[in-house]
Design a protein that fits this description.
216 residues; alpha/beta; Rossmann fold; 8 helices; 7 strands
Length: 216
């Protein structure tokens, strides 16, 4: 039986150098986040940004909901792939990082596609309960992942996609001795998704792990 390849640092660099070329503003966001120190971990990986871009291109997606924006790398990666009349509603509660993200969106001339809502995501989800989306990307506080997922499923068009980040949690999901509350919550979330017959699903080992769900 075939097995997945172990991705070394050198192989990862090779993969990235032979894939989708980043927009200059995407590179600026990455450089900016690197200057922030440990909080950089909140950024998606470059391979994930490439994946999100391609998924939108090939899936006829026009309207996106993002739960968790940080400084905007994932948002911009998706916006650049949308048609000019495409739309992203981006939810985040951090006003400071949102201002940084908006500046990057403007610099890339993509701000006309992006609407940001700054408050706890569950409150914003109440505000947009009558909206419908083709894709939802979830990358926010892990303790609310199941609630975000359930709310997102209600807003999703048939055959729409929900993509969730951090589902492998630095590899700790297979560590039976890790009883950290976040690890336990991610394990609970993964179990919840695996039993959900409303979607087709797949875990992809990009970045910290992404689950892709298609609504049936």
């Amino acid at each position: 039986m075939g097995s997945d390849l172990n991705i070394t640092k050198e192989l990862q660099e090779y993969i990235l150098s032979h894939g989708y070329n980043l927009n200059p503003v995407q590179k600026e966001i990455i450089d900016y986040n690197t200057s922030l120190g440990d909080i950089k971990r909140m950024q998606i990986s470059i391979s994930q940004s490439q994946f999100l871009h391609l998924i939108i291109k090939i899936s006829n997606i026009n309207k996106v909901l993002e739960i968790g924006t940080f400084t905007g790398l994932s948002t911009l990666s998706m916006a650049l792939a949308l048609s000019d009349d495409g739309k992203i509603i981006a939810l985040d509660k951090n006003e400071e990082t949102n201002k940084v993200a908006i500046d990057f969106f403007k610099k890339a001339n993509q701000d006309h596609k992006i609407k940001t809502l700054i408050k706890p995501a569950l409150e914003s989800l109440d505000e947009i309960k009558n909206e419908n989306f083709d894709l939802v990307f979830i990358d926010a506080d892990k303790m609310n992942y199941i609630e975000y997922y359930e709310r997102s499923l209600q807003l999703l068009n048939q055959n729409g996609l929900i993509i969730i980040d951090n589902v492998l949690w630095y590899g700790e999901v297979v560590n039976e001795n890790n009883n950290d509350k976040f690890t336990k919550k991610i394990k609970e979330f993964n179990s919840h998704i695996s039993k959900d017959k409303r979607v087709e699903k797949l875990i992809i080992p990009l970045g910290d792990g992404m689950t892709v769900c298609r609504k049936l």
